[in-house]
Amino acid sequence: MITFEHVSKKFADGTEALKDLNLHIEQGELLTLIGPSGCGKTTTMKMINRLIEPSGGQISIDGKPISDQDPVELRRSIGYVIQQIGLLPHMTIAENIALIPKLKKWDKSKIDKRVDEMLNLVGLEPSVFRSRYPLELSGGQQQRVGVIRALAAEPPIILMDEPFSALDPISREQLQDELVKLQKEIQKTIVFVTHDMDEAMKIADRIAIMKDGEILQLDTPDRLLRHPKNEFVRNFIGDERMAKGQAPTAVDLMIQKVATVKESRGLAEAFRLMKSERVDSLVVTGPEQEYKGVVTLDQVQKHYESDTKRIADVIEMIEPIQRNTLYPEIAKRFAEKQPISIPVVEGDKLTGLVTRSSMMRGLAGLEQLGYKEEEPLNE
Amino acid sequence: MNDKNFFVLFIETMQNRWDDIFVALQEHLFLSFISIIIAILISVPLGIFISRRKKLAEPFIAVAAIFQTVPSLALFGFLIPFLGIGNITAIIALTVYALLPILRNTYTGITSVDQSSIEAGRGMGMTNMQILMKIEVPLSLPVIMAGVRTATVLTIGVATLATFVGAGGLGDIIYRGLTSNKDELVLAGALPATILALGFDLILKLLENAATPKGVKAKK
Known about the structure:
The complex is a heterodimer. Chain A is an alpha/beta fold.
């Protein structure tokens, strides 16, 4: 659909915004461009509707180079949504939505019908909102109008430049959900620039991670999480998620009050402890709370008869995880090795335990972390 | 001067000289109007032009400001050697005087239009002309109108000096009153000039409000 071939951009002041960029955007996909500021993501997007001209290389849409097309005509066939929304304050909502259809000289009855259809699409009642002015609307409502204004003239391509990042968190979530739902219905080719990894993960079919004018990795969200190509990508995914304050890491997902036992103890004592704490495994620690391994009910029962055996003899080593280990990795460990639980350590000291259900609860609502202390031990 | 008689004298002067005053009033309006319209025709496009080339804005506004600083009577004086006396000289002087407020306000108005509206417009495929006519001009119209109002009030005031270049106007009446030492005649010229200025100020204020787009007022 949209193809970048060896596209480069040098600005007049000498900064090299893009270096030999190659990118193919499929018909009907939602592609996010993401990266730290100055990585060239916005430059890349603005080249598609010729708001920025490349210094070298070629961009084509459906095989036709865009440099041969009239920029004004080209832009009318590409929807454009910006962070600052940019509704025209002196025009009503209906006039704003009708802007491009009018420039394209649609007839009035068709425009009116389209305006109502668009308003309904994002849940704004036409009879109420048609004649309102942008400044009478909330930020979230304004950006809904911004989105449908871009859709009104039925462009096959839509460019979105950090469209939701100026909104409050609740509106942002809602608009992201609506966009995902909308995209299922309209199946447009959407190029979406963002700096928010959570947003990209949520909405994108594919994510292009950019740095210093190059695409480091272009993959589906799932593959990015599983196979980050290099340290930068890994850190970018990680750092972004942690910087947001809602990054699920081992700390968020673990329980702190763990039933532990010292390795020098006998099996009978371990059995009694499991019974009284109603758990089927204990974490074994040394004198200084250092992590040694796990003992399970199965093992204790198997060796119970021999009263010379102690915990040290039946211990199982489950490789612990660090406190800052990210959720995707923890999920992978559970999926691959099927452990009952994974101990969390800081250095070599035990600090908690992630179980399948503590993980689920942690993901379901991080606000519940406050009640962690009251949760049953080890499940 | 007998105060008790002054008011009566003034009324009598107004009645006796009404024809003269009326002619002077027409001349005054004519001079002011033509000058303002020429000033608008020059300043608005120029203001739009310099808003596109900000490097030129400083010098253009500075030149207009220098014109404005020249004492009004001196400006008329400067022009006489080049243009002689008459309406043309008066109109040129008044126009030069009215340039600055309109130019400055047009420039300020256009450059203070929210850039996001313009970016959205351009990104959606509006031509430069459409951006100007559908976004920039409507949104900056109140500011431009405020400039026109300032210029109009100024011009109506300064137009009383047109008499010194033989272009008539209410200044004629005032000047005649001064030379013949008739205060009531001075007032018969000054009062209509004042009323004219205040009246236009009011009318243009209303126009300015009408020019403010409805959607923008909603914000306040």
